[in-house]
Amino acid sequence: MRSLRQYERSDVSAEARRTEAEAIQSHAPLWIASSLTLFAMTFPIHSDNNN
């Protein structure tokens, strides 16, 4: 049981990484939307330059 308790203590950092990964996954749609918005904003500029 002592080794199990030591493993639980070391697993705290793993839980922190897990919650951090979940936060990144929850913010992923927002990041994708912002990148698509930036791409959409730069696209008409190129078409206007071609005209």
Q: Can you put this structure into words, describing what you see?
A:
This protein is mainly α and 51 residues long. The protein has one domain. It has one helix at 2-50. The chain is rod-shaped and about 60 Å long.
Task: Give the tags.
about 50 residues, 1 helix
Task: Itemize the secondary structure elements and their pairings.
Layout: H1 2-50
The percent range for helix content is over 70%
Strand content: under 5%
Mean pLDDT: 73
End-to-end C-alpha gap: 74 Å
Number of domains: 1
- SS elements, strand count: 0
Give the CA-based shape: rod-shaped
Rounded to an integer in angstroms, the radius of gyration calculated over CA atoms is 22 Å
Briefly characterize the structure.
By secondary structure, the protein is an all-alpha fold.
